[in-house]
Specification:
about 70% helix, 4 helices, single chain
Length: about 55
Amino acid sequence: MQNPIEQLLIKPIIRLVIGEQKLRFYESINWEEESDRLRQPHLIYPSYYTNTV
């Protein structure tokens, strides 16, 4: 469930600033899959890179 402030205030502002077309492009990308391409298996990443919210 999304935060009401995010839903009612932040998202409309972001849509206005960024633009609907760019936002749709951003939302169409599977960021988990794309980030897997850049991961280096031999590196030990700090927890702030690997922890998800």
